[in-house]
Automatic annotation (TrEMBL):
InterPro entries: AraC-bd, Homeodomain-like_sf, HTH-like, HTH_AraC. Pfam families: AraC_binding (PF02311), HTH_18 (PF12833). One of its GO terms (molecular function) is DNA-binding transcription factor activity. SUPFAM superfamilies: Homeodomain-like, Regulatory protein AraC. This is AraC family transcriptional regulator. It comes from Actinomadura verrucosospora. Keywords: DNA-binding, Transcription, Transcription regulation.
Length: 247
């Protein structure tokens, strides 16, 4: 498992494989675009026969208005009708990058940034459009992303955002198919899974980082939503080098 602080954009030209992002499996096949955003835990599997382009870039390089860059956007999509333009943009970026490594020029960095922006906008054009009329959910999701370790009460977010709890619940149900409380709890569980699978933290430290004062309460919360204790989940997902997690 990897958890990077940068974006990963993959354009698959040939072959088949799998990428797991936040414990969800996504099939890799020709014509697929995969966009992994910073902070997400991911792993590539069975990719020896996969060919394509992989671009790594910092969050500040993402252009404003790129639909694929939304923090809650899809991981993978495939729209062959637009693939030619995406491939053209990727090839141009690769050629300029190779040229800049062979011979640096004063405007080389600016050119690379401009071409990356073109690629990201083209790739984002292919992404499924977000549902309309979801301002309340977008605000709630962003607040949860920032404060999930501060509060696990929907009313706290409603007060902070100026919405009623009913409005947030209805908006979240329409956009994500989950109640506002379930969405919030899901985010806490996801962060716990990321920590347990990717780091060597103890269950007590994982509890602290996800906003629990009592590790026992955290373990109860986690088990109720995953049917596993934190220690059992860590043992199932960690590599031997990560070390054990004690309950």
């Amino acid at each position: 498992m990897q958890r990077a602080d940068f974006h990963v954009l993959a354009i698959v030209d040939a072959g088949h494989g799998t990428v797991t992002v936040d414990f969800v499996h996504h099939r890799l096949e020709p014509g697929m675009i995969v966009w992994i955003r910073p902070g997400r835990v991911h792993r590539w599997d069975d990719i020896a026969g996969v060919d394509g382009t992989l671009v790594l870039f910092r969050p500040e390089s993402v252009p404003q208005g790129s639909p694929g860059a939304a923090p809650f956007g899809p991981v993978g999509w495939r729209q062959p009708a637009r693939q030619g333009l995406v491939r053209l943009a990727a090839d141009h970026l690769r050629r300029e990058y190779d040229a800049s490594r062979a011979h640096a020029t004063p405007g080389g960095t600016a050119i690379l940034h401009a071409l990356l922006e073109v690629l990201l906008l083209r790739a984002g054009e292919c992404a499924p459009p977000p549902p309309t009329g979801r301002d309340a959910f977008t605000a709630y999701a962003a607040a949860v992303e920032t404060h999930f370790a501060v509060s696990r009460e929907v009313a706290w977010y409603a007060h902070r955002l100026g919405y009623s709890t009913r409005t947030l619940t209805r908006a979240t149900q329409n956009a994500a198919g989950r109640s506002a409380k379930q969405f919030l709890d899901d985010r806490v569980v996801l962060e716990a899974k990321r920590l347990l699978a990717h780091t060597g933290v103890t269950v007590a430290e994982c509890a602290r980082r996800t906003g629990f004062d009592d590790p026992a309460n955290f373990s109860k919360f986690f088990r109720a939503r995953t049917a596993l204790t934190p220690g059992a989940f860590a043992a199932r997902t960690r590599t031997p080098a990560d070390g054990p997690a004690s309950n």
